[in-house]
Design brief:
- The complex is a heterodimer of chains A (about 290) and B (about 280).
- Chain A contains nine helices and eleven strands.
- Chain A has about 290 residues and is α/β, with parallel strands linked by helices.
- Chain A has one domain: TIM Barrel (Alpha-Beta Barrel), CATH 3.20.20.
- In chain A, helix 4 (about 125-140) packs across helix 5, helix 7 runs parallel beside helix 8 (about 235-245) and helix 8 (about 235-245) crosses helix 9.
- The longest helix of chain A is centred in the C-terminal third of the chain and has 25 residues, at about 260-285.
- The two termini of chain A are about 20 Å apart.
- With about 280 residues, chain B is mainly alpha-helical.
- Chain B folds into two domains: about 10-135, no CATH class; about 145-280, Outer Surface Protein A, domain 3, CATH 3.90.930.
- Chain B has a three-stranded antiparallel β-sheet with strand order 3-4-5. In chain B, strands 2-6 form a two-stranded antiparallel sheet.
- In chain B, strand 4 and strand 5 form a beta hairpin.
- At the A-B interface, helix 4 and strand 6 of A face helix 1, strand 1, helix 4 and helix 7 of B.
Chain lengths: ~290, ~280
């Protein structure tokens, strides 16, 4: 772990991690690969008492774990789902998770779940609504919630501020952390026509608890966040730019579709390690 | 001339967008669906959603709408691979479309999405070989439930020998949580096995009564075809019938040597880890 971590809660730089995926269970259990940490999709382990939790227990006994959710529904007009939160808290305790993250989005309303990360209107009303809910969730979980910027494909005319400003004010108002998904910044910048570097430069570095990196699919007219390929160079460059501001922060490679062998995913993750080292060397040379 | 922006407020905006997303078919049809129009008239959409340089406002919402059903089909295909294989991509997607319209996900987890799928198939019109497909779905639901059931320690295989002879009559066996028994009107287990083996040499799926136990052992799901007497005996034990009564009932359906046969089955099932213990009457 890197003692130079700059986030305000002193949460550790866990190094370079990858997402725990079913197809890799046998490899991980047998080979015990040299991975700094694993990120676990929370909802996949909440409602099962079978093999997934058995594997998770083995992995958590050996590696640091962080939880990452997709159904917190923090931006919804619906009430918070207390059953979900209760199970999330239990899972965090079971895995001794270093932190718990989800997305700035809504996933459903009127009691339904579309199982998608739907875009928020970036309004004062939405900001107040989400900030209050983040505080509630943090109180229940007894730890600061960490929220990720989702890739978005639509914007609303009612939005009165850019996403980075919304995020900045939310983090101040609700005292939460940010999982900065650099690929999502790139995707949303392409889809909405903003400058991704402006986004990166506007984020308070002391709030960045974790990075996500991933591949995507460029449809020409828009980009979809598919997590099915290698990270493209412009995204690596955004990562380099952000790391220069935040210092080395726990970084995770996501690969969720067309998942290749563990070693391929691991090799892609290790590219991030090289970027981090380069960044440290640059900083050392500059000083 | 561009129209002025329209702020629907968070609840109404979300109700409208979800109504559009949940509609099957083309997004142009989705925006005029009754549930969507109840929140926002199609002519007002550009007052709510910004176009990009390359996509119209409707097309941008269509990115989300187009992915919704694909996600639902993928999730249910994971739980019901044999049903999906039997029906083929198009018919399965059509079935899922109708199913999620009737039973949209209401949980944080996909695990619960398919709970009503077998009953839905049974009550649906226009499903090819509906009775067989509903039976097959019932077996696949049992597999999913067993996969996710809580873990319970199995009764040791040698424990039977430790039960005093006189205690058997009133003994009540407790099944593990990850055990399901099913009686089917079709050879669904044979069909599921052929799909899992990817050999495309599917069995004849004509009407024929079959009985299947699904259980979990060392975190793996197993399936076992049973005869009717074996199913009835195991079913009675799993439902908590005292051993003596379960034996008496099961023996009626067997020829000579029934007691020995029943004990042999019991030993096999205990060895397979289908029970977690026994309660002896005092």
């Amino acid at each position: 772990m890197n003692p130079e971590t700059r986030n305000r809660w002193g949460l550790p730089d866990l190094g370079i991690g990858i997402g725990l995926r079913t197809v890799h269970y046998p490899h991980i259990l047998e080979k015990k690969p040299d991975v700094d940490f694993f990120e676990v999709l929370s909802e996949n382990y909440m409602d099962t008492g079978g093999r997934p939790v058995w594997v998770l227990d083995q992995v958590a006994a050996r590696y640091p774990i962080v939880l990452h959710g997709v159904s917190l529904n923090i931006g919804s007009a619906d009430p918070l789902d207390r059953e979900h939160l209760s199970k999330l808290k239990s899972l965090a305790a079971r895995t001794r998770a270093h932190w718990v993250s989800d997305h700035l989005c809504w996933t459903g309303v009127a009691g339904r779940n579309t199982h998608d990360l739907l875009p928020m209107p970036l309004t004062e009303e939405a900001l107040r609504h989400v900030a209050a809910r983040v505080k509630t969730v943090s109180d229940i979980l007894e730890r600061p919630l960490v929220l990720e910027n989702a890739s978005t494909y639509a914007e609303f005319t009612s939005s009165s501020m850019p996403e980075w400003e919304f995020f900045g004010r939310l983090m101040e108002d609700a005292d939460c952390g940010m999982l900065l998904d650099v690929n999502n910044v790139y995707v949303s910048a392409f889809n909405h026509g903003f400058d991704p570097e402006a986004y990166i430069d506007a984020i308070d570095p002391s709030r960045v608890t974790q990075y996500h990196l991933a591949g995507h699919t460029n449809k020409g007219t828009h980009i979809i966040d598919t997590h099915n390929d290698h990270v493209i160079d412009p995204v690596w460059q955004l990562y380099r730019r952000s790391v220069a501001r935040t210092g080395n922060v726990a970084t995770l490679l996501e690969w969720d579709a067309d998942i290749p062998d563990f070693d391929v995913v691991h090799a892609e993750a290790l590219k991030a390690r090289a970027y981090r080292r380069k960044e440290k060397a640059i900083a050392a040379a500059a000083s | 001339m561009p129209q002025p922006p329209l702020d629907l407020g968070l609840p109404r905006l979300q109700r409208w967008m979800q109504a559009v997303i949940e509609q099957p078919g083309a997004v142009d049809d989705a925006i005029v669906a009754e549930t969507a129009r109840a929140e926002l008239e199609p002519s007002e959409i550009e007052r709510v959603v910004l176009p990009s340089k390359t996509l119209t406002a409707v097309e941008r919402v269509g990115v989300y709408q187009g992915m919704y059903l694909l996600r639902m089909v993928e999730a249910l295909e994971g739980d019901y691979p044999a049903v999906a294989h039997f029906l083929g991509d198009e018919e399965f997607a059509d079935l899922v479309t109708r199913y999620v319209a009737a039973h949209p996900s209401t949980s944080y987890t996909f695990n619960r999405l398919g709970k009503r799928f077998p009953d839905f198939i049974r009550q649906s019109r226009g499903v090819r070989r509906k009775a067989f497909v509903a039976d097959l779905a019932r077996l696949e639901l049992a597999v999913t439930e067993v996969f996710d059931a809580p873990e319970s320690p199995a009764w040791p295989a040698d424990a039977i020998a430790k039960i005093p002879q006189g205690a058997w009559e009133g003994a009540v066996l407790k099944p593990i949580a990850a055990l399901r028994l099913g009686a089917y009107a079709y050879p669904v287990n044979a069909y599921l096995q052929s799909v899992k083996q990817e050999n495309h040499d599917h069995p004849d799926v004509g009407r024929r009564a079959t009985y299947v136990a699904v259980w979990r052992k060392r975190y793996e799901v197993w399936r076992l075809d049973l005869s009717k007497p074996a199913h009835d005996f195991l079913d009675a034990l799993a439902k908590g019938r005292p051993f003596g009564r379960a034996v008496a009932s099961a023996a009626k359906g067997l020829q000579g040597g029934a007691g020995e046969q029943l004990f042999r089955w019991l030993r096999d099932w205990v060895a397979e880890g289908m029970f977690e213990g026994v309660e002896l009457s005092r």
